[in-house]
């Protein structure tokens, strides 16, 4: 059991005119009492704190005014002595009052201590739970940090998956566009082949027509020669020798065939090169799309694994 009492008094002097006037003050008087008791492994603590403060001071302004008036009215040293004596008497009465209040305070504190010692509540000692509480708090903090890290990883995986999904969709659209271009080119090649077949058919028809006209021409020439021979007339035509139509047609046909062959070779070369370039682009994009699909699959697996870990930690 412990009990402390402290009282402090101070005296200050202030000057009013040519007279030093004391100013007294009683600072707070405080007391504290604490009681410790324990039995059978349990401990109880009772603490009492009571403070009473008394302060009496004489204002400088009011005292100065009063003193000035008294001095002005009386104007003598005797009045100053009487004033000082009055102040000393008042100080003594204040000190007596403080002592009586301290005595009453000690009595009240003694009664309070006795009352608390008899009827004070029992306080259980929870100190041995603090270590467990701190450990649990540390575990909760660690789990919270792990959960935040896992959530961050999941968010990063989702963002990466979204990026790869966008890239996959872009590559897929490009692939479909290239496939559409290839389909259009194949259609153009088919149309070109049809046109080539039509031209070959027309060439064959022209060849047949040429043979037919040549045959008719020979028949007409033979008929005219027979008529001339039967009439016995000799007809000499002073005209330049006609050119061989068959030779001319052969030359024209050869030139046309050569031109058609060159055009066909150039067209085949152009479309072959275009198809090879398109096929290369499609192959490259197909490889990139497959790589993106594989990466997306891996990210989905990672995301599922992280979600499973998060669910298990939450449970």
TrEMBL record:
Q: Which PROSITE patterns match?
A: IF_ROD_2 (PS51842)
- A biological process term (GO) from this entry: intermediate filament cytoskeleton organization
Keyword Coiled coil listed? The answer is yes
Q: Which organism is it from?
A: Cebus imitator
Q: SUPFAM superfamilies, per this entry?
A: Intermediate filament protein, coiled coil region
An MF annotation (GO) of this entry? structural molecule activity
**InterPro entries assigned:** IF_rod_dom, Keratin_I
For this protein, the record's Pfam families field holds: Filament
Record protein name field: IF rod domain-containing protein
Q: Can you cite an annotated GO cellular component?
A: keratin filament
Domain (IF rod): residue spans on this chain: 80-315
Coiled-coil segments: 77-118, 189-309
């Amino acid at each position: 059991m412990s009990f402390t009492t402290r009282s402090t008094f101070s005296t200050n002097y202030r000057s009013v005119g040519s007279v030093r006037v004391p100013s007294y003050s009683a600072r707070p008087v405080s007391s504290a009492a604490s009681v410790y008791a324990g039995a059978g492994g349990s401990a109880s603590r009772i603490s009492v704190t009571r403070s009473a403060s008394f302060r009496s001071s004489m204002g400088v302004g009011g005292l100065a005014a009063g003193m000035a008036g008294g001095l002005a009215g009386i104007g003598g040293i005797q009045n100053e002595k009487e004033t000082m004596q009055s102040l000393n008497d008042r100080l003594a009465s204040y000190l007596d009052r403080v002592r009586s209040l301290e005595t009453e305070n000690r009595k009240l504190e003694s009664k309070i201590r006795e009352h608390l010692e008899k009827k004070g509540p029992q306080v259980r000692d929870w100190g041995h739970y603090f270590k467990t509480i701190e450990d649990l708090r540390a575990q909760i903090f660690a789990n919270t940090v792990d959960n935040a890290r896992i959530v961050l990883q999941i968010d990063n995986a989702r963002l990466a998956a979204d990026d790869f999904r966008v890239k996959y969709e872009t590559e897929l659209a490009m692939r479909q566009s290239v496939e559409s271009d290839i389909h259009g080119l194949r259609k153009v090649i088919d149309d070109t082949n049809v046109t080539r077949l039509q031209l070959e058919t027309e060439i064959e028809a022209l060849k047949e027509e040429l043979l037919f006209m040549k045959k008719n021409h020979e028949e007409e020439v033979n008929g005219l020669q027979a008529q001339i021979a039967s009439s016995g007339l000799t007809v000499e035509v002073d005209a330049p020798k006609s050119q061989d139509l068959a030779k001319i047609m052969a030359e024209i046909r050869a030139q046309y065939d050569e031109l058609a062959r060159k055009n066909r070779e150039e067209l085949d070369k152009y479309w072959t090169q275009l198809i090879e370039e398109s096929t290369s682009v499609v192959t490259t994009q197909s490889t990139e799309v497959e790589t993106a699909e594989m990466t997306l699959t891996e990210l989905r697996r990672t995301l599922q694994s992280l979600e499973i870990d998060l669910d298990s930690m939450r449970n």
